[in-house]
Amino acid sequence: MSNLIDPCAHCEEMMQPYLDHILTEAERAEAESHLDECEPCRRRYRFEESLRVYVRQATAEQMTVELRLKLSALRIPLD
Fold first, then answer.
1. Which residue blocks in the chain are alpha helix, DSSP H?
2. C-alpha span between 10 and 34 (Å, rounded)
3. pTM over the 0.85 mark
4. Which value, in Å, is the radius of gyration of the alpha carbons in the chain?
5. From CA 10, how far away is CA 8, in angstroms rounded?
6. How far is CA 73 from CA 1, 48, 63, 65, 67, in A?
7. pLDDT tens for residues 16-67?
8. Where are the domains of the chain?
Protein backbone atom coordinates (compact mmCIF):
# COMPACT_ATOMS: atom_id res chain seq x y z
CA MET A 1 0.00 0.00 0.00
CA SER A 2 1.36 3.39 -0.99
CA ASN A 3 1.41 6.55 1.10
CA LEU A 4 1.25 8.68 -2.04
CA ILE A 5 -1.77 10.92 -2.44
CA ASP A 6 -3.77 10.53 -5.64
CA PRO A 7 -3.21 13.90 -7.37
CA CYS A 8 -6.74 13.96 -8.81
CA ALA A 9 -8.30 13.20 -5.42
CA HIS A 10 -6.18 15.97 -3.90
CA CYS A 11 -7.24 18.32 -6.70
CA GLU A 12 -10.87 17.42 -5.97
CA GLU A 13 -10.36 18.39 -2.32
CA MET A 14 -8.81 21.69 -3.35
CA MET A 15 -11.35 22.55 -6.08
CA GLN A 16 -13.87 24.52 -4.01
CA PRO A 17 -11.23 26.42 -1.99
CA TYR A 18 -9.47 27.17 -5.29
CA LEU A 19 -12.69 28.53 -6.79
CA ASP A 20 -13.27 30.54 -3.60
CA HIS A 21 -9.74 32.03 -3.85
CA ILE A 22 -8.86 30.95 -0.30
CA LEU A 23 -5.82 28.77 -0.96
CA THR A 24 -2.35 29.81 0.05
CA GLU A 25 -0.05 30.88 -2.77
CA ALA A 26 1.69 27.49 -2.66
CA GLU A 27 -1.62 25.57 -2.74
CA ARG A 28 -2.88 27.71 -5.61
CA ALA A 29 0.30 27.05 -7.60
CA GLU A 30 -0.02 23.32 -6.88
CA ALA A 31 -3.65 23.28 -8.03
CA GLU A 32 -2.86 25.25 -11.19
CA SER A 33 0.05 22.98 -12.00
CA HIS A 34 -2.19 19.93 -11.76
CA LEU A 35 -4.95 21.57 -13.80
CA ASP A 36 -2.39 22.42 -16.50
CA GLU A 37 -1.44 18.74 -16.76
CA CYS A 38 -4.73 16.90 -16.19
CA GLU A 39 -7.55 17.15 -18.73
CA PRO A 40 -10.21 15.39 -16.56
CA CYS A 41 -9.57 17.77 -13.66
CA ARG A 42 -9.53 20.73 -16.05
CA ARG A 43 -12.96 19.67 -17.36
CA ARG A 44 -14.21 19.34 -13.78
CA TYR A 45 -12.87 22.82 -12.98
CA ARG A 46 -14.60 24.34 -16.02
CA PHE A 47 -17.85 22.61 -15.03
CA GLU A 48 -17.67 23.86 -11.43
CA GLU A 49 -16.81 27.37 -12.61
CA SER A 50 -19.71 27.47 -15.10
CA LEU A 51 -22.08 26.04 -12.48
CA ARG A 52 -21.19 28.88 -10.13
CA VAL A 53 -21.87 31.43 -12.88
CA TYR A 54 -25.22 29.78 -13.64
CA VAL A 55 -26.27 29.76 -9.98
CA ARG A 56 -25.28 33.42 -9.54
CA GLN A 57 -27.32 34.38 -12.60
CA ALA A 58 -30.30 32.24 -11.61
CA THR A 59 -30.47 33.71 -8.13
CA ALA A 60 -30.25 37.26 -9.50
CA GLU A 61 -33.40 36.85 -11.60
CA GLN A 62 -36.68 37.87 -10.01
CA MET A 63 -39.43 35.28 -10.02
CA THR A 64 -42.73 36.38 -11.55
CA VAL A 65 -45.80 36.45 -9.32
CA GLU A 66 -47.44 33.82 -11.54
CA LEU A 67 -44.51 31.42 -11.17
CA ARG A 68 -44.36 32.00 -7.42
CA LEU A 69 -48.09 31.14 -7.14
CA LYS A 70 -47.68 27.99 -9.27
CA LEU A 71 -44.76 26.82 -7.14
CA SER A 72 -46.71 27.53 -3.94
CA ALA A 73 -49.57 25.39 -5.23
CA LEU A 74 -47.16 22.47 -5.69
CA ARG A 75 -46.08 22.39 -2.04
CA ILE A 76 -46.85 19.26 -0.12
CA PRO A 77 -47.68 19.67 3.59
CA LEU A 78 -45.11 18.06 5.89
CA ASP A 79 -47.65 16.87 8.49
1. 7-19, 25-37, 39-60, 65-73
2. 10
3. no
4. 19
5. 5
6. 56, 33, 15, 12, 10
7. 999 999 999 999 999 999 999 999 999 999 999 999 999 888 888 788 899 8
8. 7-73
